[in-house]
Write a structure and sequence with these properties.
Layout lengths: L2 H22 L5 H6 L6 H12 L2 H14 L4 H25 L4 H8 L3 H33 L4 H17 L2 H32 L4 H4 L10 H11 L13 H17 L1 H4 L8 H19 L2 H16 L7 E2 L5 H7 L4 E3 L7 E2 L10 E4 L3 H9 L4 H39 L5 H24 L8 H22 L5 H19 L11 H4 L16 H18 L5 H10 L6
Antiparallel strand pairs: 1-3, 2-4
Helix pairs in contact: 1-8, 1-9, 1-18, 3-9, 3-14, 4-15, 4-17, 4-18, 5-12, 5-14, 6-7, 7-8, 7-18, 7-19, 7-20, 7-21, 8-18, 8-19, 9-18, 11-15, 12-20, 12-23, 15-17, 16-17, 17-18, 18-19, 20-21, 20-23, 21-23
Amino acid sequence: MSLQTLTFLVVGASFALYLGIAFFSRARSIGDFYVADASIHPVANGAATAADWMSAASFISMAGLIAFMGYGGSVFLMGWTGGYVVLAVLIAPYLRKYGKFTVPEFIGDRYYSRTARLVTVVALIICSLTYVIGQMKGVGVAFSRFLEVDYGVGLAVGMAIVFVYTVLGGMKGITYTQIAQYCILIFAYTVPAIFISLTLTGHPLPQLGLGGVLADGTPLLVKLDQTLVDLGFHEYTTHVRHSKLNMFAYTLSLMLGTAGLPHIIIRFFTVARVRDARSSVGWALLFIIILYTTAPAVAAMARLNFNQTLQPQFTELLRYEDRPQWFRNWEATGLLKFEDKNADGYINYSADAETNEMVTLDQDIMTLANPEIAGLPDWVIALVAAGGLAAALSTAAGLLLVIASAVSRDIIKTLILPNMKSRQELLAGRIAMALTILGAGWLGLHPPDFAAGTVALAFGLAASSIFPALAMGVFSTRINRQGAVAGMITGLTITLLYVFQHKGVLFIASTKFLGDFPENWFLGIEPNAFGVVGALANFAVAAGVSRLTKPPPASIQSLVSNLRAPVHP
């Protein structure tokens, strides 16, 4: 059986499972559509949260980033896992206790302001759209390589699958589908890692294999450091990303962004009790750790295999005509390109931009290509394809539901048609979901200029706008509506201004305007790490404006105090 046929069967079976789950768990009420009627068990919710969290960025991109960044890539591991601790301690239990359906709804009530709610909706949509672009692109890339169809066709198929189980099932259908997707993606991620770890080091656990030794007695990481230095790259295990301050800022930005992402927070509205929200975060972190402790091993082993494939003994070059089949497969996607600059017929791969002949090497291919590079069986390669699609679709579904609920509940019902009946609101939610899917698909097909790095950017935007408003809303009785609105606008604005330069307009501290070098950045902090600075500005402005204006009404101060009061089972 050919790889393409096998991949069609594996991916097709997974899609049939998703559609079957959606049909049997379809939403019949507003509660079902928005929060699964708060009936999800904490363990099940933890698995669904893990799938919602482990997007194409985690499954496809993270190992690729670490493979090429080395030690500097640890910011993603520390930031994304540490964010769940912040979420468990500071956010999730209190929002579940409040008992509303959406994040903007909580902020609107807490700050007794429609303006605050509207600003939150805007921030939510910006964060979620930048995030969902990467998921849609991941769907198209995985389809185009493994099913050998056009990128646009693959994207359309993915959109259709998401459309059915999100519009039909709402949060209830999404939750049970994400549980299945977690099982598929974690199996697809760990099985190849186990095979490769056994082959290279003899350890069945990749986590142990990372610190293991190769057949020649050389520790794996020592060998990887040596090979990279020979090619002119930095050592894998010691290279700091720009500076220690930048790494600290990047890690903290990802942590705060994780605790402020609405599609993650809304998952904790689906459990019955406050303590179940805390328990769900713990289970989610446990399920996530399985992949996140495997990712460094996948990254290091993939980079070593990649280097050794191109230059087997590092004393000889590989002839282009003798390139392996995996190389030819990925060349067809356009994500891997070779240019024979010196016309000698050999592949020269090095850190020297002038002589390096690998003119295009997309980091995102490392996880997907890893089983092919290692020569694993076709069924493992097909499984990885299904896992990558499961990761992208699970997160896309959560993001799309958040955007749709913000439009239907926080804009249409609150600002336009406040007297809507439940059936009308459910219909509006489904229509908003359908339109959101079409919009996300269009963005995936025609990504804007800033599509690269949008996942990290989404975390920065959430950290600078939504997280401070939630944290101050729970822990401060003095922050009022004027302060909250001013803080959110300030944090979101300066973060966007730091990152973008668009259509000839020079924004302050834009990457393009200031260049791609640390000496041109504020305190050497790169744009994707700037969310923590935006968050600090948000906190400072909110506190300052609140001190200069009237305190919140006594009823709001009482609400905040009661929100933090212990709940007895």
